[in-house]
Amino acid sequence: MGKGGEQGGDSGEPAAQIRFYTWEEIQKHNLRTDKWLVIERKVYNVTKWANRHPGGQRVISHCAGEDATDAFQAFHINPTLVQKFLKPLLIGELAPGEPSQDRDKNSQLVEDFRTLRKTAEDMNLFRASPLFFSLYLGHIIAMEVLAWLMVSYFGTSWITTLILACILTTSQAQAGWLQHDFGHLSVFKKSSWNHIVHKFVIGHLKGASANWWNHRHFQHHAKPNIFKKDPDVNMLHIFVLGDTQPVEYGKKKLKYLPYNHQHEYFFLTRILLPFLTPCSHTLLIPLWSWLDPPSLIPPSSQLTVEVILCMLPVWNQAGKLITTSPLFPRFLIKLKVQGKKKEKLQNQIMFLESHWFVWVTQMNHIPMEIDSEKHRDWLSSQMAATCNIEQSFFNDWFTGHLNFQIEHHLFPTMPRHNFWKVKPLVKSLCAKYGVQYEEKPLGKAFVDIVGSLKKSGDLWLDAYLHK
After folding, report:
1. 437 sits in which H/E element
2. Scanning 314, 424, 433, 438, which has the fewest C-beta atoms within 10 Å of its C-beta?
3. What is the Cα Rg of the chain in Å?
4. What distances in angstroms separate CA 328 from CA 168, 205, 308, 310, one per listed residue?
């Protein structure tokens, strides 16, 4: 059944006739050189298309041999438009007797989740508020301008420098949350506008690469907390995470670092790594991204280079954005603050923002299940890897609404100001199927990061010594 059906996808043209495939056959096509996807019961050969996929070839490869319907709907704000790219890749459909879900997933749960998504669409919860995001960008720029005015009128005394560090750290952290919104296409109706503004915010406010961020972050959302698929849990032997990896390392007598002390040297890495940045224009190199950094230009003390970087993006040979300088007011501050004071100010900002970023982004994931691929349905896989933090005005602002991590992972293109509206529907669906919906106070979430690292370290030590 289905023999020769892949020819339609390889040739770039639709198959001459409908071919039917079983899940057993489809699941065999999950190799690097042979990738099939199922979307709404239609089978696509994406082997050659993967390298041209705007979200990167890895994220689409992670779903090879599976039903990718929910992932497809989650990442694309205009599925109808994307269908024109899928049409030439169509090679057939699931056989009439085959279930819509692979690997004995709960079909009723999957259907109920898709009904929930349709309800959210009918409630206009995927429609962004221009006022919300305009005010959000405005309060970031206001902090940048305020910092420049403080230097202009009050000089560079130690008190002013300390206040400057706090203001610029806050503006940088908030710019990080804002670029996250545009990166997920959750602000404008058109993907192109989101991409343009994303490049501006992450490039000119953050001094980082939009392409690099997309490459990593979409993989994280597609397969959160799954080894070899989620780059955020690829610790390169610095940490062991979850319950299975520590035991595996211990049994193999792997000891790149004393993992039983990882909950302690976690704090040390937060102190040292922000200052190991290869580029003075990148004010944030958090631990998780520092382990797999983008290509960055070397630092330069020449004023002419500073001026050029403030106005122009920098591109690599592949035509991808590498980095740009942060917003123009920060350049003016650099003209005012020179020498050791300038270096001290930058170090303070990097230190504070690095802590802010890592604690907030890891509080939802590190204490949750981290394991190998289990091929769960979309709802179950996201719920196993994420948790929420209690809602409050401060928590919403401080975390960039990442305290609604569950809703964000289920609906990544939903504007963050609507998470609280869909939350009751998600909780109700989870309760119906006995799926754990975990929510905790902000302080406990931070403590749980350390506790989780300690637990994993203890598991490693026990296996290392006794197994």
Report:
1. none
2. 424
3. 24
4. 13, 9, 11, 6
Q: Please, are residues 36 and 29 in contact by the beta-carbon 8 Å criterion?
A: yes
Which string of DSSP letters, residue by residue, matches 122-156? HTTTT---HHHHHHHHHHHHHHHHHHHHHHHHHTT
Residue reference for tokens 């982004």: 361
pTM, two decimal places: 0.84
Alpha helices by DSSP H, listed for 235-276, are: 244-251, 262-272
- Are the C-beta atoms of residues 162 and 124 closer than 8 Å to each other? no
By DSSP bridging, strand 42-45 and strand 388-389 are: unpaired
Segment 102-131, tens digit of pLDDT: 998 999 999 999 999 999 999 999 999 999
The total number of residues shown for the chain amounts to 467
Return the SS3 of 102: coil
Query: What secondary structure letter does DSSP report for 367?
Result: T
* One-letter identity of residue 7: Q
Mean pLDDT, the chain, integer: 83
* Phi, psi for 38 (deg, rounded to 5): -120, 125
Residue 213's φ and ψ, nearest 5 degrees, are: -60, -45
* Distance separating the N- and C-terminal Cα atoms of the chain: 47
**Burial class, 432, CB count within 10 angstroms (exposed 0-12 / middle 13-18 / buried 19+):** exposed
205 burial level (CB within 10 Å; 0-12, 13-18, 19+): buried
Q: Which CATH superfamily is domain 20-104 in?
A: Cytochrome b5-like heme/steroid binding domain (3.10.120.10)
408-453 pLDDT per residue, tens: 999 999 999 999 999 999 999 999 999 999 999 999 999 999 999 9
